[in-house]
Amino acid sequence: MAGLSLELIGLQLFAGLALGSVYVLLAIGLSLIFGMLTVVNFAHGAFFMLGAYVGLWLLSIGVNFWICLVAVPLIVGGFGLAVERTLIRPLYGRGIDYPLLLTFGLSYIIVELVRIVFGKSGYPVATPDALQGAVDIGVGYFPLYRLFVMGVTALILVGLWLFLERTRYGLIIRAGARDAQIVRVLGVNISRVWLMVFGLGCGIAGLGGLLAAPLQGVIPEMGGPILAEAFVVTVVGGMGSLMGAVLAGLLVGVVVSMTSLFAPEMAKVAIFALMAVVLLIRPQGFFGRAGLMS
Amino acid sequence: MTDHKMSLTRRRLLGTVGAAAAVSPFAINIVRAQESKIKIGFPVPLTGPYGAEAEDQVRAAQVAIAEFNEAGGLAGRMAELLVRDDKLNPGEAATRTLELIENDKVNFIVGSLSAAVQLAVNNVTKQRKVIFNSISQSDAINEVADFSPYTFHEALNPHMTAGAVGRYAFQKFGKKVVFLTADYAYGTEMVTGFREAGKAFNIEVMGDIRHPIGATDFSTLLPRIQAMKPDILCISNFGRDQQIALKQATDFGMKKQMKIIAPILLYTGRIAAGEAAFEGVIGGTSYYWGIENKIASAKAFNDRFRKMFAGKVPSDYGSLAYGGVKTLLMGAKNAGSTDAEKVIPAVEALKYDYYKGPQYYRKCDHQSVQSVFIIESKTAPKDNPTDVFNVIAIDEPNEANLRSCEVLGHKA
Fold first, then answer.
1. ipTM associated with this complex
2. Could you tell me the CATH superfamily of domain B159-285?
3. Among partner residues A2, A5, A134, which is closest to B252 by beta-carbon distance?
4. Partner of B276 at 20 to 30 A CA spacing, among B3, B147, B182, B252?
């Protein structure tokens, strides 16, 4: 292991956290939706991809990247609202596998539609001018854009935390997750809460897609692999736990990054090995409540 | 009595002639339809990460077909291209190939765009004794285990390509090398080619890092490579993998610390990814349209391609399809037949210059001996967005740059 220095380990750790940020953006939406609605959203990767394509389309008609950062989550979130209202709502109370199968099918439809509209081969997306290049972060040079992605993720997390913990609406959402029946009895329109939560989760996934686009380009299939990784993150963190999604997301990023340092070919397997170990020791994940799936 | 008999015979005769007259033009048409078309099956990965390259292969193959037909075909028999999507999947490709042979009764197969997929196609054509001209890189297809008399390889192979790029880069940019490689046949064959070429220069391999095919993030591999401080980073992957790897390496500022080389720089990839990611990267190619000011056949091919496809220029892999289809058709024309046993010696006998300078198929492994162009990516001038590479060296056709027939297991 020639050249293995403290700087390298530091830089590698940082690369892992940056990678984890994208996982976190996808996983908090998944976790939020599952925690509140007990819907396992298999279309979440498709919403991620949709975010990237909506961004690509907006950029191509001359909208600047900073406006896209706001517009993309709104558009994708809006689409999420429509999906919840028309497709998912009729399935509440029918058991966990109904919405699961529905969203699974929906993901295929969305991917196929994008293929028809935008074509099968992907497009590269340029890094915004202001965010190009690498900066010295003390242990070495790191791409500015990746730092930016970490920053946006942190902002979203703080915003989400404030929203859930410090606002009246957040209180209702938390109460709804505990016991929807009681909240309903208290005169709150719980359907509307669920609608908003689904839209919010999809919007954040869309933002994740937009942020990932300059890193890896866009293709219709881009939501597939990352959805699998995001599911690992939610399982490790505990289904339905936001805190769990954040910690597990960053942890998975770091595990990939550290494995890459010593055995790059094991990096992908390491994610699933981590999940297996966590499931053996703590089946509900880090912060999961036992029995939520039953 | 006799009269009656006569009349019967005459009636019968008339009837027979009439029926024959009614049926025969139709019957002759059927026979001619079966005889007249020379069908070329063309399995390529239209869906998937190499879709853009595959589409250009189809375009260039159509140029070869059009030229052949305009020149009168094979004594009036016209050629036809039957395109199939192999989805970059060996199983899919084998099935499509089998269908082309069994159901569509194709005369030849040309195609494939993957080191692994072409071996699957070759397996089928070998068994069915149908000539297959492979138009993507592979070393294995030359070797005795996979080769058959029905196998031709118009594309370069990794040994030739990596050898040419390695010989150029190792003497120019330094001896300390790190490999970053897609972990499948294409990547591993390229690395073997570079290492072979590097022996003469005493290169020091500081790292040999493999990534899975279809990787979307290289950020966890790049810091380690930076810490190794090599002179050369050699990235052997293809299509989207190449675009993403080069983009992320650029984002990490690696071009300031080391020279990045690739066995192949793809024209389609460079156009899709834009100038920043590829800027200054050096690699090899079987064809770049810009050689047209030096090579007359390239000029003619480009002009024809531009005419057929609204001013577009052919890509590297596209041109291989042109060469692959054209050599088989010319072989058939020279042989005066589409019978494989007659076409094989005719193709072996070709000394051709169809689009990139002189070429011929080596007898023992049917590998096309040809030049390799060393190119460097640059910013395209404002008035010509297709002018994206400089040809900085040409590795002339030379059998010495191929592995010998004995090494491949052929009896010389």
1. 0.86
2. Response regulator (3.40.50.2300)
3. A134
4. B182
